[in-house]
Fold this sequence. Notes:
mainly alpha, 3 helices
Amino acid sequence: xxxxxxxxxxxxxxxxxxxxxxxxxxxxxxxxxxxxxxxxxxxxxxxxxxxxxxxxxxxxxxxxxxxxxxxxxxxxxxxxxxxxxxxxxxxxxxxxxxxxxxxxxxxxxxxxxxxxx
Length: 117
């Protein structure tokens, strides 16, 4: 519908309702997938370095579960509920990334400070 300009040639008084969430949500899925991939790499690097990341791992698992629920709701045409799950997952991932980056930054600062003593 959205790709066919004839659907938007309206006569006076005619109305067309287009649920833009149907068309914009795939972009949101891609964005969240990219953020999750980045966060998983960051988490893996911190774990290999020896950091304790159990809480962050759980937060990312929750976000992955919300993403799966959102995909199911999208397929069922429940775009508003899908968007709600995507938003919650995105906020969780962004907050987790921030915490992971702060852990790394704090560790680098601490090492620099402690080597002086």
